[in-house]
Amino acid sequence: MAYEFERKQRITVLGGGPGGYEAAIAGAQLGGEVTLVERVGVGGSAVLTDVVPSKTLIATAEAASAIGDAADLGVQFFSRTETGRPIRPEVAVNIAAVNKRLLGLARQQSEDMKSTLIRSGVKIVQGEGRLDGPDAVIVSTGRGAGAIDFDRIEGDTTVISVGASPRVLASAVPDGERIFTWTQLYNLQAIPEHLIVVGSGVTGAEFASAYTALGSKVTLISSRDQVLPGEDADAAAVIENVFRRNGMTVLSKSRADSVVRTENGVVATLSDGRTVEGSHCLMAVGAVPNTAGIGLEEAGVQLTESGHIRVNRVARTSVPSIYAAGDCTTFLPLASVASMQGRTAMFHAMGDAVNPTEIRNVASNIFTQPEIATVGWTQRQIEEGIAQGDIYKLPLSENPRAKMMGIKDGFVKLFARTGSGTVIGGVIVAPKASELIFPIALAVEHRLTVDQVSRAFTVYPSLTGSITDAARAMHIVL
Ligand SMILES: Cc1cc2nc3c(=O)[nH]c(=O)nc-3n(C[C@H](O)[C@H](O)[C@H](O)COP(=O)(O)OP(=O)(O)OC[C@H]3O[C@@H](n4cnc5c(N)ncnc54)[C@H](O)[C@@H]3O)c2cc1C
User: Fold this and answer.
1) 111, 345, 453, 466: least surrounded by Cβ within 10 Å?
2) Same domain, yes or no, for 140 and 217?
């Protein structure tokens, strides 16, 4: 009997962010010969400029707020003058040290991920890659000159995970000194006296919240009537209220037409002619996928008008040998989703068991203070009749642990299918909501009913107690 030699499947991954990284690890684990092409650093924007630096900055902002809030719990800070008179010490944030710390953490995480890839047998090629038809990638490596300055990698399967970059408006071009994208903010050596944030989506809201806690005067310019458009309206209302209470100026229904430098700062001109002067400005007006000029259309890959790659639930594009994961695709722009898509693509390509990604089950979080975590169907979808559900909202002011901790704002909201009581979604607004949403995400993923959720023990007293309390209140009487 003749045995046919079966060669390893050759996989090329373009981009080393969460999508590409997870695809490469899964491909190698499943026995593929994997090459990962990355132009900047392993970990991608997620690790180097977006998630890791921003969440590290926010950890400092939370520490600064905790000092302020501690007074409510009876903690006093004072020092004494030479005469023994007590005086209040100033709380100051050394942003240069904070930025050094967060960039160091990001670099270290990138190095750790690179080591894991190498240990897993993934070959890393540093350079700018583009498709050369459906089965090959050309990489400009920067080595040598002219025609020998590239590698051509042939493969059986390609995963495109090239991410996205900050959107830049021609009338408000970031210079990295006074006008910033979120990737440039970490150059700051001093806390901005007055930071104007243009854009009240997730990124704008997170930085506005953090810089208020770090000591900046912040003006948030929001084109909509409420911050965080598209998010749960009750949650957005809580956050906007907290923002204003903390001294932030929120300009609603205000579109910034231009932002330019002045002698000592910046001036934003709104579409109604008003102007806002500040010391610095953060432009947080969305992101564009890095899909232009990398041979996608030429290889037959379908894109949307916005340049996102059309993928199905197993991350496959319109070309069978090409998959795509992360922010460059039509799925949600989240690191967790990018990772899931990267893994799913490989499981599918290598013939392993696949669970198609279900966008509705994705848990996500907005790292403002307090945080907003959501999963499943939304209240708006229920109210518009897209999903059939009952809604129950429990303010945290009724939770004993929240009272002990001095938590002033927030709630737990559950959505359950009308009739059956199956949990179909939820929203939590609370400190560390990102940690509290998991039981609801589990319930949504595994289609638990409110009765099943409420039968599980929560610790007394605990914030999660509000989840079981809400579930209990939604019990359907037979
Ligand atoms: C400020 C901010 C905070 C965020 N916080 C969170 C959060 O808390 N949680 C969360 O889940 N998500 C968060 N996100 C979203 C998250 O950053 C993205 O969803 C995630 O980075 C997507 O991963 P990715 O692999 O698609 O792309 P990326 O992380 O962008 O990686 C893409 C990589 O591809 C490389 N690349 C691009 N083109 C080429 C090419 N032609 N050749 C070679 N390499 C190339 C890039 O250099 C980059 O390294 C945040 C985003 C922002 C802006």
Assistant:
1) 111
2) no
